[in-house]
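In pairs, describe these two lines:
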Amino acid sequence: MSLIQLQESQKNRLDWLLQTAYTAWRLFVKNELTNHAAATAFYFLLSAAPLVLLLTFGAHLLAHLAETSALASMVLAALYDQFQLERLISLGVIPQKAALSASGVGLLTLALSSRGLINALQSAFRVIFPDEAKRHFVFNWALPLIIIPLAFGLVGLTVTLQAVLNFLASVEMIGVGRGALFKGLNLVLGIGSIWGLLYLVLRRMPLRRPGALPSFVVSGLTTLTLGLLYTGFGHFYRVEKYQAVYGALGGVVFILIGAYLACLIFYFWSQFLYALTKVDVAALEKLFLGGAGQGAGKLENLVFARANRLLAKYGQTYGEGEVLIREGDASSEAFFLYSGKVGLFKTLGGGEKHLGELGEGELFGEMAYLLGERRTATVRAQGSVTALVLPPEMLEELMHYSAPLARRIIASLAGRLMRMNQATPG
């Protein structure tokens, strides 16, 4: 590969990234995901409160066992470290003591609030990953009952493993190097747990499942962004200020804001995952409608200004007299004429009749796919021609994605049928 080709390839990758990010952001705003994030954060707080209460009750039981069991002591230390229970108690989010009766109330509240949390997630994902299908009614209602035991199981496993790793890291006999290794494994375990949970949500929640590799990468980016949020949250938001304004509820408001920001990050990256599959469709829509279209801003015009990436992926060149479409063929690709002119010809009365010409910016060849018929005319290049050749599934995606483009295709098809009827003898 030459230097020029390498530079062009890098520019195409940059175009792809910018167009994907812009498409994700535009859909994020259009789908009003800020409202969905607020609803999810609210139900998360309702679910987290009884969950933390149950964890506190479990911590008190472990505290009694820790008097005679070293393993219970390690698990208890990991529990407080993992969920920062001391900080939550100081914030007034959870009480100093949890009574046995509170565990039953907390479990019931958790079951009810988790139902709202799952509904909020499903509502957001139906907007992010639109699909006309619906989940089975029984599965939809049983989902919270599946997630609660699964969440407790993952929490228990993570806390236990972290307790073991923390213990091994604190043992002086293993040396400084191995201690640092176990601390690193502890960090990797925490990150891996979040990464894996996000991956499962992104793969299982959409009705039409995204690809495994994109879901894995996006869940990793989400984990990284959430880690940055967690690290920098305390520098921009001080819980003391909220406690000064809201009193005892200041800690709850502080956590609610953090949950809201976390939901915003999660939904943006979920929208980014969907945009990965629609970036070509979005770029083709802008190209077919003549740039970014009416009402587009300067940023949108800049992001979609270059068509080089689309030409590299879908473009084909044709010489003088070369046939793009032959009458009677069973092919169903659609063509967008990027540059040059083509002539339309139809066999009539034993000869070939010239029906007209199509110029730059015209979409043609869609009739065979939309009507499910063979090609009705021959399309031949008049001079040098560059065209984007689109498979039928891409045409279907374009019509489903863009109402203005669908109207243009229908209008173009109707006009072409009218010209062909006029050219055909009665």
User: Anything to note?
Assistant: Residues 137-170 form the longest helix (34 residues). The chain has two domains: 31-277, 282-423. Residues 2 and 304 are 26 Å apart (CA to CA). The chain has 16 helices and six strands.
